[in-house]
Write a structure and sequence with these properties.
Blueprint lengths: L6 H10 L5 E3 L14 E8 L17 E9 L2 E8 L3 H9 L13 H4 L4
Antiparallel strand pairs: 1-4, 2-3, 3-4
Length: 115
């Protein structure tokens, strides 16, 4: 049986917690890691989605983040870092959206009556 997830839950579960740079030097694991597994797994993905007074409308609008998992000696570490694009820097410095994104337009509310 599948549980129905609301759009608000979907955003919160997906990337709502991924708003800042973070680091976990020793990720808890269940079981054992194969001794031959060493190296890094790096992926990009959505990061900041919630602004101080507004949530962006789509996962594609989220400011990007890099996520790195490091495997060595049977242990795993993790870190993430926001990608410092022009849009991200503007949001960080001003707390507002200044660029039109995939599904979120900062000017739409201003011109909403015209549309």
């Amino acid at each position: 049986m599948h549980k129905t997830v609301s759009p608000d839950d979907f955003f919160a579960l997906g990337i709502g917690q991924n708003q800042t740079t973070s680091q976990i030097p020793d990720v808890p694991i269940t079981g054992t890691m194969p001794p031959w597994l060493t190296g890094s797994y790096i992926r990009n993905g959505p990061g900041m989605l919630q602004l101080p007074d507004k949530r962006l409308n789509h996962w594609f609008d989220a400011q990007g983040a890099l996520h790195k998992f490091e495997f060595a000696n049977g242990r795993v570490s993790y870190c993430s870092k926001m990608i410092e694009s022009q849009s991200y820097k503007f949001i960080r410095d001003n707390g507002t959206l200044n660029y039109s994104e995939f599904a979120t337009d900062p000017c739409k509310s201003m011109f909403g009556k015209v549309m």
